[in-house]
Amino acid sequence: MEHIRTPKVEQVRLLDRFSNKSTNGTLYLTATHLIFVESNSNNSTSAGQEVWILHHHIASVEKLSLTTTGCPLVIQCRNFRLVHFVVQRERDCHDIYSSLLRLLRPVSYEELYAFSYNPKQNDQQREEGWQLIDLGAEFERMGVPCDQWQLTDVNRDFKVCETYPRDLYVPITASKPIIVGSSKFRSKGRFPVLTYFYQEKKAAVCRCSQPLSGFSARCLEDESLLQAISKANHNSRFVYVMDTRPKLNALANRAAGKGYENEDNYSNIRFQFVGIENIHVMRTSLQKLLEVIGTRSLSMSDYLVGLESSGWLRHIKAVVDAAIFLTKAVTVEGVSVLVHCSDGWDRTAQVCSLGSLLMDPYYRTIKGFMVLIEKDWISFGHKFADRCDQLDGDPKEVSPIFTQFLECVWQLTEQFPQAFEFSEWFLLQIHEHVHSCQYGNFLGNNQRQREELQLRERTHSLWAFLMSEKQNYLNPFYSPAYADSHPVLAPSTLPYNFKFWRNMYHQFDRSMHPRQSILKTILTLRENSCKAESALQSLESRLQQLGVTPIVTSDPPAPPPTRDQRSSALPPRPDSLILGAPINHKEEHQRQDDDEQEEVGEEATESFDTERTVEGSSGTESRKQSYGELDGTYSSELAKEEPAVVSLEFGVARMTC
Amino acid sequence: MEFSEHIKTANVEDVVLRQPLHPPSRGTLCITGHHLLFSDREETGTRQFLLLLKNIDAIEKRMSGSSGTITIKCKDLRVLQLDIPGMEQCLNIAHSIETLSCLDCASEMYPFFHRPSDLSLQDQWGLSSTEKLYSQMKELHDRWRVSTVNRDYSVCPSYPPAVIVPKNIDDSMLKKVAKFRQGGRFPVLCYYHRKNGMVIMRSSQPLPGANRKRCKEDEDLLQAVLDGSDKGYIIDTRSSQQATQARMTGGGFESKSSYSCWKRLHRQMEKGKALQESLIKLVEACGDESNNMDRWLSKLENSKWLFYVQTALSTAGLLAECVERDGHSVLVHGSEGKDSTLLISTLAQLIMDPHCRSLEGFLALLEREWVQAGHPFMQRCAHSAFSHARLQQESPVFLLLLDCVWQLWRQFPLALGFSEALLLRLATEAYASDFGTFLCNSHQERWALGVMERTHCLFKALLRPRERDYYSNPLYEPTELAIWPSVHPQSLQLWRGFFLRWTQQSRHLEEAQEEIRNMVIEWGKLALS
C-alpha cells in the first residue's frame, strides 16, 4: 500500500505498561495490522510473543521525544490496549508514525477492513450469515403485529426518517398523516415507534427523539400519536414519557427550539426525567478513568479516589437505574413507556435495550442478545460510525455509549450469574468487533447508509461468526430454569454492586488478571463430561450390537478427565486472557516471575541504609538457578502434552485465517 | 456460674423476628445462659433459630407504647430485629443480652458446655504439635532442634511449651535472648523452605533501647540461623521511623553494626486501633443505603481497608520473594510480634508452600501460626464493627488475614484446597464459637483453663467428613508452584462474601458456588460410572 513506507523495523523494544520489563523484537507494518514479533534469541525454547494490532483499533499514535535508547512510540487502542514501543532509529520511528497516522484515519468506507476481509466463505454462506437475525421474526416473537400494533410502510423509502429502518411498528390507530405530522415535530424526524412489546401486560416500550417544542410550540399529530400509544394499552390510561436527560439539559434545549413534552398539552402522559449525562460527559469520564488506571504504581487510595472522580461508575449506575424504572413501569404497573433523549439514538438505545434485557429472558441468550443489539442499536440508527470513529471524523462525535451498554450488561451478569447464557467473553468479543471494522454489521450510522454501502453483498456478518463459535461464549452457570422462575430481573443498584470491569479496561494487561480461571476450568470439565457421556453411550450401543446386556457395573469405566486428556483432546480455544492463559505452566510461571518483580520488589526499598534492594540482589544467576530445576520438571511433564502455543491475542488469530 | 441471675425473663411469646433474607416470623423467644433461641410454629412445622449470645456485638432498644423493638447487631455483621410485646419483658431481654453477651470469663463460655454427639473429649486436641512437626521434617534435624525451655511458660508467656531453634543455641542462651526481646518472644523457626533450605523466623522487637544495648546471644542466634550463608533479611513491619522511635521506650531494631549480615527492610503495617477503626468504617460504608455512588467510593477509600489488604499481601510477597527467589533466610517482627508478624508469615507460607494450601494444611497453618504462636484472640476479637464500647485491645488482624487469603483464592481459584465458605466460617468462629480453639490469648491461658481437656477443637470438627466436603474446594488442583498474587489495586476487591454477606446479591453468588460444586460432583460421578 502506498501509505506504508517501512514495512519492517528490527530491534524494537516493547515496554511493559506497568513494570520495567521489556521485550525485543521486530515490528511489521502490513496493510491491515501492525505486528510485533518477539525475537527468540534470549529463550530459544519458547515461541516469541506476538502482538497483532488492527489499524482500526488504534485510537491514537504518539511519538515522544527521542531518548538515549531510541525513539518511543505510544499506541493507544480502542480495545483499551496500550503499547509502548522504542524504535532505535528516529527515522524508522517517524516512518511508522506517519504511516500509521494515515492508516488509522481512513477517509472512505471502502478502506475499512471489512471490505477486504475474506474468511473463505462462498456467497451463499455469507448470505446465510446475514439472514441469521431477522427483526421481522423478532417482532412476531413479541406478538406484533397484533390487534393494537401494526407494521407501517410509511418509512419504506426512508422518506419520513432517514435514520430509522424501513420497517416500523406503530399503533393501529395512528394514520399516516399523524405519523408524518409527528415526525415533523421530532428532532431528525424520529417519531415515536414501537421497540418492545411486553405481551403479558400488553404494554409497549416506544422510542423517539425530543419534540421540537421550544418554549410553547405544540403539534396535534404528535399529541394524537401519543394518545394512540396510550389507547393501544387497555391496562393503563396514561403513558410514561421518560426523558433520559438531566432536566437542565432538556431545559437548555428549549432555547434551540427543541425540548420536552409539556404535560398540559398531552392529556395522557406522565413525564419523568432520569438524568443520564450526554455523550461529551461520558467521553471525558472514560478518558479520566483510563488516565487513572493507566498510572504506574497506582496506590489503592488514588485508585479509589480516581474511580470516584472519573464518575464512570456513577454514569453506569444512572443507565441501569433508568432501565429499572422502565422495567418496573412496564412489568409491574403495566404502563406503556415512551423513551427519548435528544436525538434518540444514544441514551434512548441504552435504556430501551437494557430495559428489554431485564424484561425478557430471550435477550439474555446468545442469539437473543444479538437480536437485541441488531434491533435497538443497529437498525434504530445508533451512530456507530461516528461514535466509534470509524472514519476520520469529528472527535466530538466519538463517545463510548455502546461500551457503556456492554458494561451495564456485564454488571448485571455479575449480579445474576445464572441468568445469562453468555459469559463476559462474549461481551468483550462484541466490543472488540464493534471497533475492528472487520465485519459489516456496525459500519455506517444507519440502515440507509448500510444499504448504500451494499454491506450485505460486500462484507460478512459478525453474528454468523460468533454463532459458529458459540461454545466459547457459553456461561456454565446459565440455567434456563432460572429464566423461568425469574423472567424479569430486579437488580439492586446499591452502589457497591457496581464494580470496576477489569477484564474490559485491562484486558491486555495480563499481570492484573487472576492467574487461574474458574470459567475455563468449568468449561473444560463440562466438555470432558459430555465426551465421557457420549463415549459411554457409544460403548453401550456397541455392547447391544454384540448382543451383550450391559450391566452398569461391568461397563468399561470412562477414563477420568485427567489433565493431559483435557489439553490434547480439546479443540483449540481462542487464547482468551479472560479464560486464562493456555495451560502451560512454564509460561505461567515465568509470567508470575516477572510480575512479582514489579509488584513487590519495586516498592521494597524503604530502608535505612541504601544498600542493594531485594530486586537488585535477586540477580539473574540465583533466579536461573532456582528456576532451572523447576523449569525442568514442569516442561518435561507438560511440554509434551501441549506444544507451546503462540499466544496470539484474541480475535487476531481469526482475522488472519 | 449463675447465669440465671442475669435472666429475669427467660421466655417471651408472640415475638416477631426479622432477619436478612428471610420473611419475618412470629414465635417464642427464649434466653439461656449462652444462647438466644427463637422458634416459630408455622403450619409446616417448627423452625428454630439459635444465636450464640457471644456473637452479639451491640444492641439497640426502642420502645413504642407497650411494646419494644430490639435491634441486634452481630459480630458476623448480621443485623436482626426482635419485636417484643410488653415493655418490661423487652427491657429484661435487652438487659440479659447486654450482660450475657460480654461476660469475659473464658471458663464460663459456651465451648466448655458444648458437647456434640459425634466428637469425644478423649480425642487428641488439635491437629499437630511442634514435636510432631519436627519429627516429620527430617530435613530439619541437622541444624535445628526442639527446645522445651518454655515448658512452664516462664521464658515467654505467649509461646507454646516447645519451639524450634538452631541446634547450637542451648536453652541458657535462649533465656538470655528472651530477655532481649519484648515479651520474651525470642526468634523461633516458623517455616522451612524445602527447595533451598532457607527459613522464616519470627520474634518480637529486640530491646536495645536508647542506650543501644546489645545482646551477644541474640546476635549468635541469628548468626546460627544464617549458617554460613552470606546474609539474611529482617522484615520489620514498622516504618523505619517507628522503629527508631521505639528505642525511646526501650524497644528498637537490629542495628547494622551489631548484625552485619542482616539487612533490614521496613514495611509499615497498620494494626491495633487503626485497623479496628478501618473495619468499623468499612462496615458502616457497606450499610449505607444512600444509593450514592460517589459517597460509596469515597467511604470505601476512607476506610483504608483495601489499602491494608494490599499492604499485607505485598509485604507477604516481599517475604516470599526473599526466601524463594532471592534464596535467603528472613526474620520477621514488628513490635510485639503477635499480629502483623503472624499475618505476613502466614500469607508467605501460603504463597510458597503447597502443603499449606490443602484444607488440612491450611488449618494446621492457622493452628501453628496463630493459635499456638500466641495471637491474643480473646483481646483482638472481643468486639467487632458495631460495638459502642470503648476500644481496648480489639483489632481485626485475623479477619484481615482471612480477607487476604480470599484475595489469593480469587486469583488462584484452583490452587487452594478450601472454599470461601471455610473463610467465612473461620471469620465467624474467631468472634463467637462453640469450640475452644480461639478461646484465650495464649497457650498458657488455655492450659490453665484446661481448654484442651474440656472443650472441642474447631479444626478437628471442620475435618469431619460432612464438613470436609462442604469446606473443600471442588476445583482444587494442587500445584507445586508458588502462587504470586497481583497486588495492583485493580486486582484486589472488596470481600463481598463477608462484608455484604447478608444481602441478596451475595446469595446469588453463593448459589453459583453451589452450582459449581454440584456440577463437579456430577461430572465426577459420570467419569466414574
Automatic annotation (TrEMBL), chain A:
Instruction: List the coiled-coil residues.
Output: none
What is a GO molecular function of this protein? phosphatidylinositol-3,5-bisphosphate phosphatase activity
Protein name (database record): Myotubularin related protein 6
Biased amino acid composition, Acidic residues: 593-608
* Keyword line: Hydrolase, Lipid metabolism
Q: Where does the UniProt annotation place the signal sequence?
A: none
Q: Which Pfam families match?
A: Myotub-related (PF06602), PH-GRAM_MTMR6-like (PF21098)
Tell me the active site. Answer: C341 (phosphocysteine intermediate)
Per the UniProt entry, what species is this protein from, by scientific name? Labrus bergylta
Region Disordered, residue ranges: 550-641
